[in-house]
Backbone:
């Protein structure tokens, strides 16, 4: 009878806090890389947690995986990877091809 549909503590996503919001928060906190990956692999998931939304990437889902320079490996659902990369671009941290921005004017170092 008291069969719980949503176990407390099971990280049931609050759909009002969208995955995009979560990814933005992680970017704000520095938990997600702010640079685009040089290489990315796609494949089926291995039930590892997604670095974007935190949910497992099931073996029936496509997983995007890439290495960061510091040997850390990031995994995303394909949709989460898209949100993450779009957010990087939106913030101007990467440009279209994932390269870091260049020649941005820094505060106090502006040439007019
Ligand atoms: Zn995800």
Residues:
């Amino acid at each position: 009878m008291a069969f719980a549909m949503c176990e407390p503590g099971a990280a049931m996503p609050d759909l009002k806090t969208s995955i995009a919001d979560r990814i933005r928060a992680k970017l704000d906190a520095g938990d997600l890389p702010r640079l685009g990956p040089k290489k990315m692999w796609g494949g089926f998931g291995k039930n590892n947690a997604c670095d974007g939304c935190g949910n497992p990437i099931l073996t029936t889902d496509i997983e995007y995986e890439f290495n960061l320079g510091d040997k850390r490996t990031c995994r995303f659902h394909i949709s989460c990877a898209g949100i993450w990369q779009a957010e990087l671009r939106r913030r101007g941290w990467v440009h279209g091809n994932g390269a870091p921005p260049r020649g941005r004017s820094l505060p106090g170092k502006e040439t007019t």
